[in-house]
Amino acid sequence: MNIILLGPPGAGKGTQARFLVEERGMTQLSTGDMLREAKDSGTEMGKVVAGVMARGELVTDEIVIGLIREKLEGEKGGGFIFDGFPRTLAQADALGELLNDCGEALDSVIEMQVDDEALVARITARSTCGNCGEVYNDNTKPVPADGKCTSCGELAEFKRRADDNEDSLKIRLMAYYKQTSPLIGYYHAKGNLNSVNGLGDMAEIKTAMSDILDK
Ligand code: AMP
Asked: Does 52 sit in the ligand 1 pocket, CB within 6 Å?
């Protein structure tokens, strides 16, 4: 089963993808994570994208499609979760072709709906475990006082993303509404679209997602 998690920054795509990886053995493909990795390891491409990402703009279609192509050619597993990809209509078309070329299908697109106010509150309070990626929130799930991650149990460094600030977030939200939200209509027309309310209890959201995937 191959699925896309669609939604604005802070909608909870990464958190839900982690559940699906643990419970269903799927493979998460996050273009944001791939780009951050390239940036941190100082590759040529990483240097090119660093400024674009810091500003909150979208990296070129060519770069992100290339990253996904490499992964699809190299990895096989219990299905892919596309997290943060596609983000433009050109990327959506390219993904359809790439899946087709490797004999795979797109089974479901799950749109996670969260209003802007909640997104800003979530993102400006967010940090993640540098070891396993567990997500924390200053207000609802603070970093443990003993410095040990509640998920992996390691004494970890808890990191904040450089683009998780109000200025970048405004641009990231604008990019979502302008360039990515047209994908809602695109996948609706293809008959793949499902929506969940991304606000509220994490367990309830998880159940809503499972109901969609198991129907
Ligand atoms: P994310 O971790 O998904 O919030 O992505 C962080 C940043 O990486 C975005 O603000 C973009 O600058 C870039 N990015 C991630 N995925 C894509 C994509 N599919 N297309 C273009 N830019 C992307």
From this structure: yes
